[in-house]
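Weekly structure sync - notes
Attendees: PM, LS, DV (DV joined late)
Agenda: review two folding runs queued last week.

Item 1: First target. Sequence and structure tokens pasted below for the record.
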Amino acid sequence: MIVGKRESIDLTTKTMPKQLSREHNLNNQREKIEILSIDLLDQNRTTVEALKRLSRSLSLELGWHYLLDLTWILQNLGPVVNRRMMDAGAGVGVLQWYLAQQGAEVISVDRASRAELALRFRSRSRAQGLRKTDLIPVHHMLLKDFSREASGPFYRRWVMRGMIIARDLLWLMHRPHRTGQVWIYNQDLASMSDIPENSLDAVVSVSALEHNTAQGLKRVIEEIMRVIKPGGVLLATLAAARDQDWFHEPSSGWCYTEASLRQLFDLSDAPPSNYSRYDELLKALRNCAELRDNLARFYSHSDKNGMPWGKWDPSYQPVGICKQKQVTGWKGKKI
């Protein structure tokens, strides 16, 4: 059990013979390595539009390939109601809020602090800190906003503070019916001691793991697999490389070959891959009008991102990894 000072969340898993087949069937995905095709957009149009609406309502702009990443993960994840899962390297990204909106219980893990998470996110889903220090209470946030410095004459400062408080209260008063739960956990993915082993149905990760070195990524994957239940699944998107691993300097992320991904994620030669279509899929991606014409505005502000200065010229493409934790019987036999 994970215990905080304010509230506790029970993530323990009891291992009983009759549960083995249930947990094995919970995620019947086949392990695979799949470069993400732009066909995902049309195949999952309802989900794509829902993600766009949710992002707009949260004032979030999506990364240039994130609609592919998100739809691939959700397509392979299946129903999430009453399932316990982790969003690894979540930041304030849209996936955790979407999953909670669908009825999931999500542990949102990121080494960057979200202790002062904006109220527009808290109004969307029930958000709490896994530990007391992980999330500042709402009333503390209101006081902080009220005390925020403002320039100009005395009356103007008070008007500005009043507008900030009114905005915050508006978020809280007009929040939709909230389902699910998001637990904020500000922690390095390589060391998640507050999460018991074999406790989560699934772990998802959107374009976050490639920001580790190969050695660091190996440690992160081992820790992620520790907390997944037998039969549970890891669904992660990274960046693909055709011939050799290389570092994409603008986005500070590694691009990996199929061989490297198999080694890092401890996948045998059996799980299928579509790396043979690398050139074909990259050409289609470069010609994708939907992604090109809806490129987020923040890309045009800098060259330190995945699409420097907002010029549409994909130099890599996203790849999805599906890895399932083996189910073992009472005598250690894999099922």
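Item 2: Second target, run right after the first with the same settings.
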Amino acid sequence: MMFYFGIIIVVVLGSVEQIKTWERLRLRRLRHQSQGKIQALRRMPELDMELAKYMLWRDFFILKIAAWTHTRPKAYTRIIELLGLKKADHMDAEEFNREFDAVLEERFSLSAYLSLNLEAAVSDSIKVHWTTWLAVVLTFSVFALLHRFARWRLSFQVVIFIGFCFVIFGAMVYLSKKQQATIRKNTKKEKELRACNTAGTLGSKDDGGMGVASRMVVSVSPDMGGGIHQNFNTETIILRVLQVFLFLISYVFASTLVSLMLTLDETQTPDLLMTLLPVLGFVVLYAILAKYLPRLLPPFVAIMAIPPYVDNDNLETLFHVLVSDNLALRKAFSVYKGISTVPRKRSSHKTEPLVELADMMGVKDHLQSRIEEHGKPPAQQLRPATRI
């Protein structure tokens, strides 16, 4: 157990760093948007490759959600309810689609969505489930029979465990690369269609919207490639299978260490060397796992939470993000409009963090100029914040 949780600790630390990176990218995007640099970054992504990749994923996600009106109507209807949108009788479908896209572009926080999915996956890996124990017992029972009747040695069994682990790693890398290629391909196609038709853009050029034409003009590939991934949480299944084999490897490693300790009292050097070599091999193996597993798991979980791989658990997380963000916007709007129940004499304390945030985003001078121009306190001058 100690060796298994040693690997998990490294995975947790790597996941925390990835969550911090996503949040930094979100704030960096806000800063670029406030400075009017979003369009330049879209034209020249090499200026900030990390942010350009984040924006690419976000644009692809929003486009896919817009396509759910035909492929996943129940989820699409639920999102409309959470966003508080109602189709008026005088509003045609095209106008409503543009309003839906604009509101989703404004309120959707990709960093929060990916972070919650990664948190759920890592938390699931920390727990040793009863299915893991059952799989371990069945595996050892099968290998015990193979050892008894087929004379399979323990070293051969260890090679099988390690081989399965690297097969799972290969599957994780393959799925991640495949989905990233799909995102780049569809986004490139969308840009080509956008260049042919500039009418009905999603968000103005000034507010940093992704400038996507109406979905009646621009279309992405249908959200039908998810298959089993939409009906089952396949990433959790893969991670639990990986948990079983990591647990088996940890058990064999502990058994090898015990054998080494028992051999230390003996004077036969060949036996000591034969026991020491597997221990060194396990040390190298754990060093490889500690280095690469924290790099593979967060991108894999993130990719499996992006369409077309959005399952029911991912949908619940998406709904939670949209509801939380909507409530935050309403609360901020009530504070800025002076509807808050906080006494007036304490309003300056409420705006101090906002001024600090404006300084971080590089718009502090613009904020102060507006305050001086209108001669009103900050609580009356700020507009509702946008979390993107």
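Discussion on item 2: The radius of gyration is 27 Å.
Action: LS to circulate a short write-up before next sync.
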